[in-house]
Amino acid sequence: MTRTIDRRTFLKAAAATGIVVACGGDQGAPAGGGGTAKGTISGTVTVSYPDEAGLKPKYVQLAADGLRAKYSGVDVKIDHQKIGSGDFYTKLLLALNAGDVPDVIHVGGDKIGELADAGHIEPLDGYLKQWEDWSKVYPDAVKSGVTYQGKVWAIPYGLDTRFLFYRKDVLDKAGVGATWTGPKNVDDILEVAKAVKSKVAGVIPYALYAGPAGDSGTANHAFIPLLWAYGGDLQKDGKWIGDSPALRKVLDYYGRTYRQDLSPKEILTTAKPWTAMREKLGLKGELALLFEGAWNYGGWVTKDKAATERNVGYALFPTATGGPSFTIGGPGTAWYVTAKSKNKDAAWEFVKAFNTKEIVAKLNIEDPHPVARTDSAEVAEFKADKYLVDSTESLKKARFVPPDANFGKVIGVIQKATARVATGEMSADDAAKRYTDELRQAVGADKVITQ
Amino acid sequence: MIPGGGGAAAPARPVPRDALRRQAPYLFGLAPAAILLAAFFVGPALWAAYASLTNTALVGIDAARPRFVGLANYERLLGDPDFANVIRNSVVFVVGSAVVGQFVLGLSLALLIDHAERRGYRLATLAYAAVLLAWVNPTVIAGFLWVAMFDFYNGSLNTGLALAGAGPVDWLGQFPMLSVVIANTWRGAAFTMLIFLGALKTIPSDIYEAARVDGANAWRRFWDHTLPSLRPIGALALLSITMSTFGTFILIQTLTNGGPGTQTEVIALYAFHEAFRSYAIGYGSAIAVVMLLINFAFAIVYLRWSRARA
C-alpha cells in the first residue's frame, strides 16, 4: 500500500514541478535550459519504445504530460510496443529504413555505434550545451558510455551492471555452505556447480549462455566477463582481437561446462533462454548459479521480497587467478533523437522531460538499475535500498565495452564460437581459429589482430 | 492461353490490335492474378536479386551508403563454411519431412481413409478431421505444441517417460533434426493427404472391378491401377511440398531456432538470420536468391518427370 501512496504523492509533486516550469516558460525566463528554439517548439512528437514488463508507461506518460504543460503547442504521440527489446529493434530498423521515422526512440546504449554510422540518430551536443544538468549531474563514465566519435548520441537514465546470482538455500544443501559469498576464481564457479550437480537433485547447477539463442547475453553475461577474467580483451588499439591464449581458455571453460552437463543444453535451442533461467534462479530455486543483469532482482522482489532476500545472493565476477572481482557495466537503455525526425527540438524536449531527477530516481527504484544522474541517487528512497546502493557501488568495479559500430557483428561471431564448443562440434582450439576467420569476415581483415 | 489460338493466328499475321482484342477476355481474367504475383512475388524477387549485388545493411556505415559490390556476396557464400552445413541440413530436412514424411504418410493416410470411407466406417471422418487439425493450425502454434511435447523439464514426452520410470531425454538437444522432421511431418501430412484423397475419388471403381475379375490381389490392384492414376497428381504434390518445405523456417525457428549450434539451420532460416539478426540485407538476399534458384531446379525436374510419365 505504501507504494501506491508514494506514487500518488510523487505524481502530485511532479505535476507541481511541471506547472512551475510552465510558468517559468511563460515569463520568458532563460532558466530551465531548452534554449535555442524555445519559442518555436510545437507540433507532434512521436515517442516509440518497447516495454514488456509495463514499468515504464507511467513515466513516459509523466514526461509527455510535463512536455505538454510546458509547451502548449506540443502534442506527444506515445507508441508503446509490448514486445521484447530485440524484436523492437528489428522492427525499428525496418521502419527507419522505410522512412517511417518516430522522433524519439528507446534503444540499448550498445547500439550507438551502428546506429550513428547508419545515419539513423542525431548527435545531441548542440542541445547539451544548453542543458546544464549534463555537465552538473552526469558523471564522466556515463558520458563516455554514450560518446562515439567525439559526439554524444543518447541520454541514458538507468545503467547496466551485472551480478553473479546464487541460491543460498541450494548451496547450503550442496555442502558449499550458506555463508558462501562468491567464487574465489572462475574455476571455483565450476567446482560449486559440480557440488550442486552431485548433491542436489532437480536443480540446474549453472547457466552459461552460449550460441545465438542467448542473444547479446551470450556476449555480455558470459563470454566477455570470462574473457576479462582470463586476462584477455575484445579490442586493442582500436582493433578486434581474434585468437589469443585468453580466448582459448574461455572456450575451454565453455567446453568443460557443457561436457560435464553443468549448464543445460536447452540454452542452445530455446528461444530467449534467459526467461526460464531468471525465473528458475530468482523465484523457483531450480538454478544455483547465474551471471545476469542486476535489474532482474527487481522482478523477483516484486513477486516475493522476503524469499528473494533470504535465498538469493549476489557477487561480483571473479578472475582466473583470484585477483579483484569485477563486473561488466553498460549505458543501459537510452533515449535517442532520430536523424530524420522532422521535429528534433521538440523531440529533445521530450528526452529532457523524461530525464528529470525524480523520474530517473523513481523508475530505477522500481526497475533496479544504478541511476545515470548522480542527484537521483540522493533521493531518500533510493539511498534506503541496500540492493540499489550495492548495484551503484558495483559500477566502481565495472569494465565497459566501448561503443563500436561493429559490436553487433562481433556478438554474432561470439555466439557461433561458443555454440561450437558447447555442442561439442569443435575443440576450444579449433573454435578459436575459426573465431579469427569469422571476425575477419565480419569486421574486415585489416581490423583484426591475434595475440 | 489457348495453344491453338496462337498457332492459328501466326500465319495470317493480323494487326496486333486484332490479336489483342481477341485475347482481351483472357488478359482481363488473368490480370488480377498477374498483378498480385508481380507485386508480391516477381517484384520482391527482383529486388532481392538486386540487393544481393549490394552491401545493403540495416545498421552501420553500409546502411548509410550502400554500394554495388558485384558478386562479392556470392563469393562469400561459396567460402562460408557454414553454408555447406546449411545446405546439408536443408536436404535432410526436405527429404526427411517432405519427401519421406509428408508424402509417404499423406499417401498412406489417404489410402486408409479412402478405404475406410468406401467401407462406410464412421470413424473415418474423425480421423480425417484429426489429420486436418494439424494442418489448419498456424505454424507458430504448431511449433509451440511441439515445444510443449519436446521440452526437457515439463514436456509431455519426458513426463510420459518419467511415469514409465525412464528419461528424461534432451530431445531438441540430442536429436534436433529428427525432432523438427517429426514436427514438420505431422504438420504437413494433411496437405498431401487431401490432394491424394481427391485423386483417389476420381479413379472409377469399375477398373477395380475388372481387375478383381481378372484375379488381381490388393497389392497388384494398387501397383497396377491406383499408383499410375495417382502419378501426375503425386508429382504435383511432391513439387508443392518440396518447395514449401524448402522455404519454411517458422517451425524450426520456434523449436530450435537453428540450434544447437547450426545443427538445424536450414537455408531459409539462414537467410532470415543473416538479414534480420546480423542485419546484412545484401548477404541475406544472396542466400535467398540461391534458394530461389534451387527451387526453380526442383520445379523443372518435377514438371518434366510428371509430363514424361503422365
According to CATH, what is the class of chain B?
Mainly Alpha
How do the SSEs of chain B run, as a string of H and E?
Answer: HHHHHHHHHHHHHHH
Q: Count interface residues per chain for the largest interface.
A: A-B, 36 and 33 residues
How many domains of chain A, as an integer? 2
| Strand order across the largest sheet of chain A | 2-1-3-14-6
Q: How much is the average pLDDT of chain B?
A: 87
**Number of helices in the DSSP assignment of chain B:** 15
The gyration radius over C-alpha positions of chain B equals 24 Å
What is the strand tally of chain A? 16
Instruction: Look up the CATH topology of chain B.
Output: MetI-like fold
- Uncertain segments of chain A are 1-38
- How would you name the oligomeric state of the polypeptide chains in this document? heterodimer
Q: How many strands in all of chain B?
A: 0
End-to-end Cα distance of chain B, whole Å, is 21 Å
Whole-Å distance between the termini of chain A? 58 Å
The main β sheet of chain A shows up as:
5 strands, mixed
Helix content of chain A: 40-55%
Description of the molecule:
- The complex is a heterodimer of chains A (451) and B (310).
- Chain A has helices spanning 2-26, 57-70, 85-97, 112-117, 125-129, 132-137, 140-145, 168-173, 186-199, 216-229, 245-259, 273-284, 296-303, 305-311, 344-354, 357-366, 380-383, 386-394, 407-422, 428-443; strands at residues 43-50, 74-81, 104-108, 147-148, 151-152, 155-156, 162-167, 204-207, 235-236, 239-241, 287-293, 312-315, 327-329, 333-337, 398-400, 448-449.
- Chain A is α/β, with parallel strands linked by helices and 451 residues long.
- In chain A, strand 4 (147-148) and strand 5 form a beta hairpin.
- Classes of the chains: A alpha/beta (451), B mainly alpha (310).
- The interface between A and B is medium-sized, with 36 and 33 residues.
